[in-house]
Design goal:
Blueprint lengths: L2 H10 L2 H13 L1 H14 L6 H10 L3 H10 L4
Helix pairs in contact: 2-3
Length: about 80
Amino acid sequence: MSNAAALYARIENDQELSKGLFRQALQNPSGALDSICEIGNQLNLPVTLQEVKDHLNSLDDEITKQWLIKARGGL
């Protein structure tokens, strides 16, 4: 499992963190991506912006699709 996949799973399982990132993505999509990378560093799961983008684009679930639609400007 890649760091991006592991990080996404950790974020997805933390409802407060997920909601916060979603709200941030609505107002500042690129800032949300930066936050994801920062969270990865804090959790010892370092990722690049491109790795996050690639992972999000590879997912096929409704919640992620909604997030991607809202955050598209940052992707």
